[in-house]
Design goal:
32% of the residues lie in helices and 16% in strands. The protein is α+β, with helices and mostly antiparallel strands and 332 residues long. It folds into 2 domains: 8-128 and 173-208, 2-Layer Sandwich (Phosphorylase Kinase, domain 1), CATH 3.30.200.20; 245-331, no CATH class. Pfam families: Pkinase (PF00069). One of its GO terms (molecular function) is ATP binding.
């Protein structure tokens, strides 16, 4: 079974001591009964659960963060960002397309505490829709209506001094979630328990579309930052394939990096492949230099004003003082 499951234990930074050993069927905090595993991230696992409290009896998405100083710091920042957004007094129409934390609580693990975040359950990421529709990539006719909503959501975040990413779609019919939950209860996903820590197979797909589509929402603020701080942002904020040029060059970035990010995501959704993979053909690994070369091949060299703000250690390897590409870079 372990050879068939590629889950959090395949992450090179996986540490079973920091992960909460959640199991399907377990009731967390005497309230949330776990039905299935939806996925995992660098610092957490994500589950579909049923709120068994008398006043609720509803489904939720439960994000269980790993214990550890840095892991908890990221989770606390996500909660703080979500609370900030929820307190905003705004009539901006894009607010409806933002997914926020509904509740938080802590549970005790063997080495320490785990912060748990409760969200409204949503269907799948947009990139999975091509599979449901039997196409390679998401058809333009389907993607176009979502694009307007995503831009409204980003405009709301930017106008309220935020930076964020991640795109999920809501359920088109409440029966989809009910059917999925019953199926998971009848036939729970397999798991591997070789090291004493259960690794369940993720089941993030909710089946074929029944009718119409649900609303798209921007989710996951664990990497979000405020845009109204005096210090310029210069750290890596995006997954490598979606990095904006100013992020790649460490030339300080602002909200425009989000628009680049959205553009590269749209390309991936439409074409079913990334626009810039940054892969070094010799080593087969990601290379920032190769990524920059791919951008330049498509769009031409970066403007001198951008290079003047960039990290000189990166620039000296790639460009001359006049912004011309070095011979080594061209040859590579």
């Amino acid at each position: 079974m372990s050879s068939l499951i590629r889950e959090e234990n395949q992450n090179p930074n996986y540490d079973p001591r920091k992960c909460y050993p959640a199991r399907v069927g377990e009731t967390i905090s005497r309230r949330y009964r776990i039905l299935s595993k939806l996925g995992w991230g660098a610092n957490s696992t994500v589950w579909l659960a049923k709120d068994t409290s008398r006043s609720s009896n509803r489904y939720v998405t439960l994000k269980i963060t790993n214990c550890g100083k840095e892991e908890q710091k990221s989770a606390n920042e996500e909660v703080a960002m979500s609370r900030y957004i929820s307190r905003l007094q705004s009539n901006h129409e894009g607010r409806a397309y933002i997914r926020l934390v509904r509740d938080t609580f802590r549970i005790q693990g063997t080495p320490g505490e785990h912060l748990c975040l409760v969200f409204e359950p949503l269907r799948e990421p947009l990139w999975l829709w091509g599979k449901h529709l039997g196409s390679n990539g998401v058809p333009p006719a389907v993607l176009k209506p979502f694009l307007k909503l995503l831009l409204q959501g980003l405009d709301f975040l930017h106008s309220e001094y935020l930076k964020a990413d991640n795109l999920l779609v809501g359920f088109e019919d409440s029966g989809v979630l009910e059917s999925y939950a019953r199926q998971q209860e009848r036939n729970p996903a397999p798991f591997w328990d070789g090291d004493g820590h259960p690794i369940f197979r993720s089941c993030p797909e909710f089946g074929h579309l029944r009718k119409g589509v649900g609303l798209v929402q921007i989710s996951d603020f664990s990497a979000a930052v405020f845009g109204n701080v005096p210090e310029p942002h210069n750290h890596d904020i995006q997954p490598p394939p979606f990095c904006a040029p100013e992020v790649l060059l460490k030339a300080t970035w602002k909200y425009s990096a989000d628009i680049w990010h959205l553009g590269t995501i749209l390309w991936e959704l439409l074409a079913d492949r990334v626009l810039f993979d940054g892969l070094d053909t010799e080593s087969g690994t990601y290379s920032r230099v190769k990524h920059i070369a791919q951008v330049i091949r498509l769009l031409g060299p970066p403007p001198l004003q951008l290079l003047e703000r960039a990290d000189q250690g990166i620039c000296s390897e790639l460009f001359s003082s006049h912004g011309m590409m070095s011979a080594t870079f061209i040859a590579g």
